[in-house]
Fold each of these.
Amino acid sequence: MWKLSRIIIYISRLFLGVVFLLAGINGYFVIFGLEPFIATSPEAMALFQFKYLLVAEKSLEIICGILLITNQFIPLALAVLAPIVANILLLHLFVDHSLLPLVSLLVISLGYLLYVYRMNFMSLLERKSGPAQ
């Protein structure tokens, strides 16, 4: 059972890493006015009225994708990607249904990894905490 769990963690981590690395690089194609190699949602691109938002999000996606692929700072990458995945889910749930199956896999993979690494986030839920000694 433990080996199967490790395989699922590995697959989930690599899946998220590759998806966000490619999505981030694809976003830079859009930023530089080049033809993206992966089709982009016009509805999603309309949300990025100001280029700096697109640059910020795509940069975070690339950084987190690299961190996930290289198995470095996984809790940090998951914490950064959680609101991005939530935004992607809401966009494709309510505005553009075209990529809903892929988004469902993203949500499941991220949710599973957040569950696996939940102990890394438990200190965030402390009601009263003091400064580090």
Amino acid sequence: MTLAINEGLTGTSATKDDLSQTETVLRADIQATEKTLRGEIVSTAESLRAEIQATEKTLRGEIASTADALRAEIQASEKTLRAEIASSADNVKTELRKEINDSHISVIRWVIGVGISQTAIILAVIALIKF
């Protein structure tokens, strides 16, 4: 009993009122912390949304820029290939014309040769008939 009285006098024992006050203070602290954390969550969410939008805008710009660069590269390649095709076609046409001209010359030579041969044969036949 002496111990209990001594403890009561020194004030180290918690009373119902002390516990109630502590509970009230703790509840208020919890509510304040919850309110602060909710505010931080909202602020962080807004910040992240803004960052996502900025990143999306940047990436869309990069995509558009890359697409434009690729289109330009494709057009340049197409132009180069068309020029190469036209040049190759011109070379083929030139070669074909040369071969056709060479063929014409060969045919003319052959016709002249056959004509001379026929003339020689006719003259030979005429010479034989005269004898």
Amino acid sequence: MSMVLTKALELGAALSECDELQAVKEAEQAMLEDSSARALIEEFQNCRQEIEWAKMQGMDPTPEQEAAFRSVRERMGENAYISRFLEAQDRFEKVLQQVNQIISHALYGGGCEGGCAGCSGCED
């Protein structure tokens, strides 16, 4: 196996053990165990499907569909389990963005040899 693939496996293993991903998994489990959170997720998916179906048919979503979608999103934001999951997911996505920025810097230059002035890649 090449060194690049070996390092990719190491990176994957490190990411799978990072605190941010563990928080996502724990928040997801708690969210899925809560019946009201699950009901909101199902309602959200149904609303989204209806809107996507309308768009696939070349139609705009109805005002009722849009209102239902906004309503369920608002209620999801008020649910502690869903909010905790989304916040944890956002923190993990930021870690992934930082990893991608670091890889891009290594591939295309702009590394940190001269300091990180103007660079928000490594230390966000």
